[in-house]
Every structure is written in structure tokens, then in C-alpha cells.
Amino acid sequence: MVRNAYIIFFFLSSFGFAQNLEEDIYVATETFLNKTNNASLKLLCEQESTFKKQVKSKNEQLALVFLQCHKGYYLEQYSQLKEAISTFENALDRFKINELSKLSDFDIIENCLKPLGNLYTKTGDYTNAVNTIKRYIHFAKKSKNLKHQIGGLINLITLYKTLGEHKTVIKLCDDALKLKQLKPTQKEKFLNAKIFSLVILEQFDNAKIANNNPHILSKFNILNNSYLIELQKGNYQEAQIAHNKAKKILHAKNHLSSRYLAKFYLEEVQLNKLLNHLDDAKNSANLALKMLLPNISSIDLLNKNNLYAENTFIDIFDLYATLQEDPKLALNYYDLSFYVSRLLENNWTSQENKISNQTANRIRSEKCIDIIFNAYQNTKNDTLLFTAFKYAELNKSGILKERFIKKTLLHKHPNDSLLLKEANLLKEQEKITNLLINEQLGKSQASIITALSSDLNTISIKLKILKETINKKYPELEDRIFLVDEIQNKLLEENAVLVEYFYGKKNIYQFIINNEGMHLNKINLDASTKKHITDFIHLFDAASIINNDIDKFTTAAFTLYNILELTKTATFKNAIIIPDGILNFIPFEALLTSKTNTTNFSKMPFVVKKQHIVYNTSTAFYLKKEVKNKANNLLGIFPVFENTKNSLTYSINEANAIKEEMHSDLFLKEKATKRAFIKNSSNYSILHLSTHANSGNISTPANIEFYGDTMFLNELYSLNLNTDLVVLSACETGIGKLYKGEGAMSIARGFQYAGAQNVLFSLWQINDLSTSQIMQSFYKNYSDNQSAYISNHQSKLDYLKNEAVSNIKKSPYYWSAFVYYGELTKPTNSSKLIYALIGLFILLIILLLLLKTKRAYGKNTTGIPS
């Protein structure tokens, strides 16, 4: 960025006789640039606030953009990253809305888009970073500005390195190195990035060959790359020799950013730790911290309020934690990492971005639980168990929790303009994301994709501004802290036990809570345990697998029951299971409570015969108070797909059963369109979709079929439902790309995000006939008891007892696919019984009236007056 008086003079002279306000803005900027410090920055901020209220003409708007770009640059230098991002975003929005590119050749890419893209990367806002960088690369190509194309490519590669997409990095670097117009410094950046990714992918020979390029790489980079190669190979002594040589060159360099130096010292911490030089590691950690906080000489003097949204802090505190022998100190340092992580997340608006950033938090949570578990073994202090439990809950379905809190708040304040505006922006964000995915799948023109990315950036900016205002107005938006007593009281009321799993890298932690207390079990996640879990899940890949080897199934089902420590929960009538990781794909009801030699499925000791199993995404959702839909009606969607290879013949039987049992409106065949569903879905308390669904793949999100159209996950996110129950009578509605903490990105999750309170869905490709039979039984029971969890449980028992169903078809493949996530609704008196009693009561009244009339007539048969 050019920062001198000549540029300001150029702007003033370019537009002739500028208005006084325009001139005042440029003068204020020049005054600041001549003396940059905290006092001059404060004055500039005050002036900017005044100018914002006064600017009207395009020339004045451009002058303000100029001021904001310079202000943003210096805010970044002072490590005020959040304020810098906000300033650059405001400048970009102002430039776009006022179409200032038509007025001036002001370099918005160099002065705004590039630093903004870098700031997004620094603060972990990767969705906005990708959109911003790709956006200005597109602009640069359009205007044939090679300098900005190459600059954008360097920044994009840096981002992909951060995201761990190293194959993409190598390909982009190879393509870039073929360009003839590259400057030596640019060549070095591309080659250096390529070497880094080769090392991470353990392609050491290729990395060494690439690093042997003294005519491209500086001596420092050659040494630093050698350090990285030896480190990854486990040659720590050789790595230290290379690192120390690189360090000597580094100390002689000037103008290196504090962030770069902090990361360099972090490498030193890691190396010293591996060499068991713990004192040296602590000294290097202090140096790394000092680079980011010059006024802090030691971590012991750190105040949490000194920290800001910078992801390097997280690396520093995580390493500090691993150097501690005192568990309390280690947990304190991890808590500082979580604190910075929350600061970063406050600036994110995209749920995809939030989800992708949860992996590191999950790894940290596991380390905290492990520390507490070991401390508990020594102390048997029960308060430690609930502390461990809070770490397990910390990253459980965080996005869904946030969404539920916002929907609940809007339900309380339906006319709040801020909440309504935010809800509409979030809806629009998901719609545009869905359009963007569709365009990318269709390989549309880059200009269309860039325009959509630009729209997403604009929405993100608006959401951030709104979020700050809403959070101040409604402090209850923070995650509610619940107590173990609260959980136990509800479990006692519902005669239930809660089993929450935390699926880590080394262990599975199991929390068992009942009305008497809490227990924590550690299940070693070795190769054998992993195999038992995955093998059991794969038994349901096809209908024939279980029937071809029933003994294998019974052995696997009982073994896994024991591995998952479920014997400790068997005495409770109701069990709330909160699965995690790939445990999300286990049908717990199909596990066996004891050994068996029988091949008769109806006689096997399935969990479903002993307990009602209800699932949930987190304990916070188990405790949440449902917002009931006052309506008691059902919308059914039945595309049927007749005369196609995907025909659902027995879907009609489902529809007829629902019509007989429930007050419902059913859309069949060509009427079962996506448009009809979107238009009507918010008006019903129950939604039933009998159709096809797909779990998606790497490039395509999960989706569900309507007549003549498909709905992808992000479009489903954009709906606003107020539904008590969603029944997904379709294949794989609970399957999708699995993210640690947030679970599967499935159609079922899409409905939960859209506002469904309770969801019944499938875990694999289900059989059309058996599904129809189970659903008919489900609605017959539901019309009697109005309790989804009891009806789901009973429908499976009815299916196993049904003598018309052959033993082969009683395999758990046919009946255990459907899992219920939601509340334990108490059964009501049978509506049919009520109607029968009312009818009987009316009949009794009629009979009494007839009897009374008959007696009166009998007394007066002579016709003589008395």
C-alpha cells in the first residue's frame, strides 16, 4: 500500500476543485500518516465517525475509502485484527455500493482486498478468505493485471497450506513456476510452499531435490526447509543443527513481522520439546508470546484481556500446556486456547467455516479429559467428573446449539427488527451457498461463481455488524451453563439414564449419568476396538450380509455391547444415547444384551426388547425446553417415482396408513414437488417424507429427492420450520460427511438446523416393503399415544412379532435403520379411546332421555288429566 502525501495530492488534484469535506478527509489521512501512534489513531477514528455521517458525493465516499484502507493497514500493524477486518470490510462495501471503480482507478485489490484476504486467513475465517482471494484473482484476470494474479495465487496457496490441502498446493505451485514473468522473490515463495507441502506429505526425496536450488532459494529458506525435512523424518539432532543455522541468519534480518517471528520460535519450542530440553522449550515459548505481546515478559504475568483474535496464540498456549507437569496449570493454558478460539469464532458467520475449525478444539478437549481422568484416578474427586463432562460437551453440535438459541430468542421476540433481519440474512446466506454449490457442480462460468462469492462476503459483513448489536442486547445468547443436578432431576422424572460418548483419537470416553451420580469410563481405542466398531457398521451395508452369516452378527452385536460398556445402563427403562464420531452410525437397538446361539431373529435378546433407546446430539439438547407447535396436523410428501427404476411401490401403503390414522394433507406423485414442500412445510406440526435421499460425497452435499427436483443440504438449512416431528422415510437420511463434534452433515441434521424439534431418520439404504410396514405400525401407535419415541420402539417390536414376516426379513437390517433423535414425550390417553368414551357418554345421555320420556308417557296412558 502506498502511504505518502504524494498519493493524497494525486487524489486531490485528480478531481479538480474538491469539496471541503472531501479535502478534510484527505487532510485527516495525511495528518495520521505523518505521525502514526495510538493517539493519532484514536483521533482518526473519531474523525472517521463524523465523516461517515456527512459523506454524500462519490468523491467524498472515495476519500473515505482511502482513509479506511490506511486505517485498516495500521490497525493490523497494532495487532487490532478484528478492528482492521471491520474497517477493510466497511471500505470494500462502500467501494462496491457506490460503484467507485467507475470514478477512479484506485487500486482496491492492493489497498483493500489483499490485506483483507490475509486477515481472514490469520483469524481462521477461511470461508471468507477463499471467497475474497478468488474474487480478486478473477478481477485481476479480467483486467489482465498479472501482478495481482500472482499475488492472489501466493495468498491462495498460503491459505491452502493452512487448510492442509497440500496436493492442491503442489499443483498450484507447479503451474505457477511455469510462468515466465515471475520475479525471483515470487519464484522463491512458490518453491518454498511446494517444498513445505512435499514434506508434510512425506515425499522427502522430492522435497530434497526441490530444496537444492540455491539460485532460487535464499540460504535461510534452504536451511529452514532442511530443518523441516529432518524434523518430519524424526532426525531431531540434525533438525536442531539446521534450525540454529537458520536462526543466526534470521537475527540479521530486518522488517520481519512479529507474527512470523512468533511462529519461528514456536518451531523451536516443538523441537526442544522433542529433544526433551524442557527449559529451553519454555524460554522459546516466552519469546514467541513476547513477539505478539511485547509488554508481556512471561506467561505468568498474562491477563486474558490482553489477548486478541490471532490463531498463533492457540499454538503457543497448547504447547505451554504440554510442557506442564501440574494438571491444573495445563488445563489453565488449554482454557486460554479455548478463549482465543472463541474470540476467533465471534468473527465467523459461515457454518461451514465454524465446523471446519472445530477439529483442533476437539483434539484439545480430548487432552483435557485425559488429564482430568488421570487426576480422578488419583483423587476420586467427583467434581472432576463434571469438569471432564463439560469439556466433552464444549464442542458437541455447537452450530446446532447456536441455531436453536437464536430461533428460541426470535420465538420470544417475534417483532424484533434486528432478530428478523439476522434470520433473513442467514436464510439468504444458505440460499446463495446452495446456488454456489450448484454452479460449481455444473462448472459454470467463473464470473457467476465470483459474483455469488461476492454476495456471500457482503452478507457476512452485514451479519457481523448485526451480531455485535444483538449480543449486547441479548446477553442470554451465550451458551447456557447447566448443572449436573439439572440433568439428574430430569433423568429421575423420566426413569432414564444418559450415556454420552466422546470419540477421541486414542480413547473413547463414556459418561454415564443417572439420578444417583456420574461415572466416567475410558475405552481404549486400539486397532481391535476400531475394527469391532467398523465391522459392525458394515454388517448393514447390504441385506444379505447378516443373513449369510448370522453367527457372525450375533457375536459382533454382543461383543460391541460389552465394548461400549452398555451393561452398566441395562437396568433403566429409557436410555438417552449421545453418540460421537462413527458411533453416530451404530443402531444401538440392534446390539445384543447376551450371548445367543439362535438363528431366529425374533428370539434374539436385542436391546430394543429391554429398553427404549432415544438419541440426542448433546446433553444441552436433551435439557432444552421444546417450543410446541399448536397445530396437530401432518404434511406428507410421496413422490412415488412410479414407472421409473427408482419406483417406491409400497410408499402408497404408507400414505394410506397415515391418512387412516392422522389428520393429514398428502402430496402424492407429481404433486410431491419441492416447491409444494417449501410452500407448505412451515404450516404443519409433523412432516413425513417418503422418498429417496443420498448422503452425498466429497464434492456433492447430502440431498433429498422430490418429484422432478432435488433439494441439497444448504437449501434445507435456509428453511424456517416450527415442526414438532419430522419423519424421514428415505435412505441414508442420517448419513453424510462426518465432522468431529458436529456429527454427520446429513439430511436429518439439515432438518434439525431448519427448526425440527424431533427427527426420525434412517442410517442406511432401507427396504421399501419393510419400511412401509414399520411406518404403518409407527403411525398406528402414534395416533394412540402421541409419543414418537414409544411409537418408534413399539413399531420395531411389532415388526419382530409379526408372523407374516419371514425370519430372513426380521434381520435387524430391515427394522433397526430408523433412529429417533428428540425428547421423551409422555404418552397421552388414546385419542380413539377418548372418542369412544365420548360416544358412549352421548349414547348414555340419549338412553337416559329416552327412558325418562318413556316413564313420563307411561304415567299418562289413560289420557285423563290428573
Automatic annotation (TrEMBL):
Domain CHAT: 570-823
Keywords annotated in UniProt: Membrane, Transmembrane, Transmembrane helix
One Pfam match: CHAT
Membrane found in the keyword field: yes
Gene3D superfamilies in the cross-refs: Tetratricopeptide repeat domain
Keyword Transmembrane helix: yes
Residue ranges of the TM segments: 833-851
Residues in the signal sequence: none
PANTHER family registered for this protein in UniProt: RAPSYN-RELATED, TETRATRICOPEPTIDE REPEAT PROTEIN 28
The protein's name: CHAT domain-containing protein
Organism of provenance: Flavivirga jejuensis
